[in-house]
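Hi,

Apologies if this is the wrong queue. I'm a grad student, and the batch job for Ribosomal RNA small subunit methyltransferase E from Dawidia soli produced an output file that my downstream script rejects. I'm not sure whether the problem is my script or the file. Here is the sequence I used:
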Amino acid sequence: MNLFYQPLLTEGVLHLDADESRHCVKVLRRQAGDALRITDGKGFFYDAIITQANDRQCVFRIEQQVAAAPPTAFIHIAVSPTKNADRIEWFVEKAVEIGVSRITLMECEHTERTYLKKDRLEKVAISAMKQSLKATLPVIDGLVPFQTVIGQTDTHGRFIAYVDQDNPDHLIDMPAAPSYLLLIGPEGDFSQAELTQALAAGFRKVSLGKSRLRTETAALAGCHILNLLPPSRGAMAGKPSAH
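Support response: The file is valid. Your script probably expects a header line. Output copied below for reference.
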């Protein structure tokens, strides 16, 4: 099954954009009368029928709207950008496939890169959403200062992954919650001052295992672990705002 993306469906736009139309008509050779599965990226699938198979603007009509099953928890990963942009793109792609609600690029004391093309990351996220047949496109925030991130108070489970051999608390053993915010530091890890500030703000220091992980690996491991935690009672009831 191929999944197409049209974020403006709820605004009455009933055609695919130029890139999606070209892929649909030129590559997949879809014709008028063929069925399409489309998502708006906001939690809904749409079953549609092509009415005009134009490779610049493929027009369709909606047959039905189907709500996707909601995630068991709102998962927010705040990660320091890596020096190599490709590694963060890899993380975004895989996190979307596994399941993530929001990704924030976080500027820390030891952050090596302070600029990333947000539109590029969003394209990677859209492609991964379609590939994994999901109906919700995660929010991706541009570079946000560490102090701003830890000042958010609308998340139930708040954790900071910190390389500490004496840290016995593994993320997998944390109690289930309807929402999570996990902080992942740069290659040089968080500074001691940042750790102190996060703990004072109510974050809990956690381990991701005995191995020392690269930033993007740690972020993906944390995302996967949070997806494995059991649903909490009233999951998603207190879903944080996506903006």
